[in-house]
Write a structure and sequence with these properties.
Layout lengths: L7 E4 L3 H12 L4 E4 L3 H8 L10 H7 L4 E4 L3 H6 L2 E4 L14 H9 L7 E4 L7 H11 L6 E4 L9 H6 L4 E4 L5 H10 L6 E4 L1 H32 L3 H9 L18 H16 L5 H25 L6 E5 L14 H11 L3 E5 L4 H7 L4 E2 L3 H5 L4 E4 L4 H4 L3 H7 L4 E4 L6 H6 L3 E3 L5
Parallel strand pairs: 1-2, 1-4, 2-3, 4-5, 5-6, 7-8, 9-10, 9-12, 10-11, 12-13, 13-14
Helix pairs in contact: 1-3, 9-11, 9-12, 11-12, 12-13
Bound molecules: uridine-5'-diphosphate-xylopyranose (UDX).
Length: 430
């Protein structure tokens, strides 16, 4: 990059924080990355990366001289005007976003006209306005506030950060800070949506809710295809070629997972409810997704009869390939439902086993895919890892006790599975 780049602070070294730190450093900024978790910062200082994300460790290593890790804000505040907040906003028991980490950062902000809080964490619409009110009450009214939601996907996070479909920058009125954030993103050449804070917050929630709706929609179409003999792959192709609809996020399967869709769809529904509006559509999107995860159990029972005493192999655990993230993963619901039916579940994932055992310690995990296939009456493809798509089905058939293969992602080659003498069943593919 030519010319000096604005140094930035990144608060929160989770998914969004680390990817933003690496991405902005790649663009030439000096980055001051802060997290209260001392063990995590120690790990990062040693050059280790606490999450699995392709290319992230390499990017942090490449930018070692430019990314500084700390457990306190002092260095970031001293060196940077723009402080990007990337802390977690997990759901509370009531289902809305837990803003305690955001609030702690708000408390720690300096009363300075030369600094800006740039919100990257996904927060309910209205959060920016109340933070600005808190700043005013605390005598920090001069501190600027910008909303700059992040749209990256896990598994391709760095590429998404550096090649976004759009950059959204929200500020109320004229804002030097919003101009500075726009300038940081300028080299990426992405369309810029410069808007107000409330709209920027809503864009993020609405985008995630729309994508989740698209998935639940095609999943219901797949379920109807199963009743009518149509093939959802053909239907999605035909429908997706309509430019007004588009081909992406029309892959039917065993439901969406991940932290964002599950969290943001309920957060938006509750945000509407708390404001007095009943968001009917999103209730159905959530319910369809929950039922979709469970439909595999019924499919297995149709082939095997009672599932009590059967051995079921789960191929993949992560909520999608190229991540070890287990948040909202359909595999967890599936494993729990199968266990409740009396089946013995043996699972294999190339990367996510450790994370899976943290949330479901009782899960029987195999060290290799052969371990999940061995003696199985049926196997379910849960996550479309390349390694699992390249399975030798003749060898798999020899290892399995039964013949049933449920393709929960419509990602296998049915002909290859059938050629091995196995029974193939996908989702909505007849
Ligand atoms: C999502 C959004 O895409 C991203 O913009 C936002 O910033 C965070 O949330 P992510 O959760 O990383 O990203 O994963 P994504 O690739 O969107 O997939 C989410 C889930 O939907 C996965 O479980 C995936 O398997 C599923 N999915 C996706 C489908 O079932 N069908 C599809 O057609 C697409």
């Amino acid at each position: 990059m030519n010319g000096p780049r604005e140094p930035i602070g990144v608060i929160g070294a989770g998914y969004v924080g680390l990817v933003s730190a690496a991405g902005f450093a790649d663009l030439g900024s000096e980055v001051f990355c802060v997290d209260i978790d001392e063990a995590k910062i120690e790990l990062l200082r040693r050059g280790e990366v606490p999450i699995y994300e392709p290319g992230l460790a390499e990017s942090i290593e490449r930018n070692r001289g430019r990314i500084h890790f700390s457990t306190t804000l002092d260095q970031a505040i001293g060196a940077a005007r723009l402080l990007f907040v990337c802390v977690g906003t997990p759901p509370t028991y009531a289902g809305d976003a837990d803003l305690s980490a955001v609030n702690a950062v708000v408390e720690a902000m300096p009363a300075s006209a030369n600094h800006a809080l740039v919100m990257k964490s996904t927060v309910p619409c209205g959060t920016g306005r109340s933070i600005q009110r808190i700043f005013a009450e605390q005598g920090k009214a001069a501190l600027a506030y910008v909303s700059c939601p992040e749209f990256l996907k896990e598994g391709s996070a760095l590429a998404d950060f550096l090649g976004p479909d759009r950059v959204v920058v929200g500020a109320d009125g004229d804002s030097w800070a919003a101009d500075a954030v726009c300038a940081l993103y300028e080299p990426l050449g992405a369309p810029l949506v410069r808007t107000d804070v409330a709209s920027a917050e809503m864009i993020k929630l609405a985008a995630n809710a729309f994508l989740a709706t698209k998935i639940s929609f095609i999943n219901e179409i797949a379920n109807v295809c199963e009743e009518t003999g149509a093939n959802v792959l053909e239907v999605a192709r035909g429908v997706g070629l309509d430019e007004r609809i588009g081909p992406k996020f029309l892959s039917a399967g065993i439901g969406y997972g991940g932290s964002c869709f599950t969290k943001d769809v309920s957060a938006l529904k509750l945000l509407a409810a708390n404001s007095g509006y009943h968001f009917q559509l999103l209730g159905s999107v959530i319910e369809v997704n929950e039922l979709q995860k469970r439909r595999v159990v019924a499919k297995l029972a149709r082939h095997l009869g009672s599932l009590a005493g059967t051995r079921i192999g789960l191929l993949g655990l992560a909520f999608k390939p190229n991540t070890d993230d287990m948040r909202g993963a359909s595999s967890l619901v599936l494993a729990a439902r199968l266990a409740a039916e009396g089946a013995h579940v043996r699972a294999y994932d190339p990367v996510a086993t450790e994370e899976a055992l943290k949330v479901m310690p009782e899960l029987d995990c195999a060290e290799d895919v052969e371990g999940a296939l061995e003696g199985a009456d049926a196997v379910v493809l849960v996550t479309e890892w390349p390694e699992l798509l390249a399975l030798d089905w003749a060898a798999a058939a020899a290892a399995m006790a039964g013949k049933v293969v449920i393709d929960g992602r419509n990602a296998l080659d049915p002909a290859a599975v059938r050629a091995a003498g196995l029974i193939y069943e996908g989702i909505g593919v007849g």
